[in-house]
Amino acid sequence: MNKYDTIVIGGGPSGMMASIGSSYYGHSTMLIEKNRRLGKKLSMTGGGRCNVTNNANIDEIIENIPGNGRFLHSTFSQFDNQDIINFFQDNGTPLKEEDHGRMFPTTDKSMTIINALIDKMKELGVTIKTKVEVVSVKKTGDFFVVKTSDKEEYQASRVIVATGGKTYPSTGSTGFGHEIARRFDIPLTDLRPSESPLIMNKPIKDLQGISMDDVTVKVGKKTIVHDILFTHFGLSGPAALRASTYIKEPTNIYLDLFDNLNQEELVKKWLTFDENKAIKNSLKSEFQERVLLYLLNIVGIEPQTPLKQVSKQKLQELAHLAKNWELAIEKTFSLEKSFVTAGGVELKNINPKTLESKTVPGLYFVGEVLDINAHTGGYNITSALATGWVAGTN
Ligand SMILES: Cc1cc2nc3c(=O)[nH]c(=O)nc-3n(C[C@H](O)[C@H](O)[C@H](O)COP(=O)(O)OP(=O)(O)OC[C@H]3O[C@@H](n4cnc5c(N)ncnc54)[C@H](O)[C@@H]3O)c2cc1C
User: Fold this and answer.
1) In angstroms, how far is the first alpha carbon of the chain from the final one?
2) Residue 379: what pLDDT?
3) Cα 187 from Cα 189, distance rounded (Å)
4) Tell me, what's the pLDDT at 96?
5) Which CATH class is domain 2-192+336-393?
6) SS3 208
7) Per-residue pLDDT at 127
8) pLDDT the model gives residue 287
């Protein structure tokens, strides 16, 4: 039986970084990934460009991790987003910042990030086994025995579980880590979809493909300001994904397209525009054309009507609608089709300084398998890479 100091299960961002951390301190390390290639889900983030972290300060990062972000204080005090940026810079993969602090490789190619992680693992002598699935993990005495689908057995004094959540199972994240937790009587919290697009009762066909920047979205008592996208099923884009966290049943959400002005101020502003032009032209700078036509239709204003002929009452109605645009949401996507899994290995069982189980010494959990979920924008990957490093180096 081959023996290693550390066996890492799962070759996503958390598992690759855990392997780097472990081998960096001279521990013999093997990474086992069931896919042919490493980082399959990671390659899909940021529209295929790999949104590897976010340049926000730590308080903002934690705010953007609505699922137990505060648990990560200790992790981030050891390895944070700036360490991630420096790690890639030092390994020949500079990053660039885009809107909302999102960080991407300057190449705009996710393979650059994945290759940087693979090169580092190779440089440090990590044994990488792909196309092999871990089928069981047992503990005898101080050692773990890890069995794989090719009927091999490996022994290790510690095992790092980096198997991800349960979304997009075609990427390999099928919840095996939760099974390991169950096997060792480590409690799990319920798995739920998070960062999910929103399905509407009546998707707005006329607005399909429309994307609006920095819209204020109100869902219950929560307010989110981010970009939103109208799709054939309903809504997507970061604002919709964030809102999904708060949607458990059919709910109305409200868009405010003019957060910086109240209704009266908005009408007053519109009355300074060219009053002889058709309203659809005089308000052109305020709305995208299809949005304006859609809203005018709801309020019952004929688009060709000159602005001066539109009653103040109707303008008030239009302003009210633009600031309180009600959209009926039926539900979120299923867990499998959402971006992130909420719930997972219960954090009470995990030492926040090391990511080691409190009840099973030598067994560590990192990344999305934990009961931690973040907004898209690089925050999940930040959590995955940082927890991976901390578990690996401990
Ligand atoms: C479409 C999409 C877009 C996203 N966009 C963003 C974004 O913009 N920003 C952001 O922060 N997050 C984003 N995410 C979320 C982010 O990708 C994940 O949170 C992150 O990849 C989790 O990393 P991980 O290492 O914990 O798990 P994963 O990346 O899921 O990796 C787990 C790995 O474990 C392997 N594995 C599982 N079981 C076994 C086994 N038994 N044996 C061997 N290997 C096994 C799997 O094959 C997989 O490769 C997105 C997710 C999706 C699906």
Assistant:
1) 25
2) 98
3) 7
4) 98
5) alpha beta
6) coil
7) 98
8) 97
CB 197 within 8 A of CB 235: yes
User: Which of the 8 DSSP states describes residue 348?
Assistant: G
Are 217 and 302 in contact, with CB atoms under 8 Å apart? no
Rounded Cα gap, residues 167 and 372, in angstroms? 14
Q: Which residues of the chain carry a pLDDT beneath 50?
A: none
134-151 pLDDT per residue, tens: 999 999 999 999 999 999
Q: How far, in Å, from the CA of 342 to the mean position of ligand 1? A: 13
Phi, psi of 319 (to 5 degrees): -65, -40
Residue located nearest, by CA, to atom 52 of ligand 1 = 339
**310 contact partners, CB below 8 Å, separation of at least 6:** 279, 301
Residues having CB closer than 6 A to ligand 1 are 9-15, 32-35, 40-42, 44-46, 51, 133-134, 162-164, 167-168, 172-174, 176, 339-340, 367-368, 374, 376-381, 384
Ligand 1 centroid from CA 380, angstroms: 9
* Main-chain phi, psi angles of 249, to 5 degrees: -150, 170
pLDDT given at position 1: 81
Residues 271-304, buried b or exposed e (16+ Cβ, 10 A)? eeeeeeebbbbbbeebbeeebbebbbeebebeee
Closest CA to 241 of 229, 232, 249, 256: 229
Q: Give ranges for CATH 3.50.50.60 in the chain.
A: 2-192+336-393
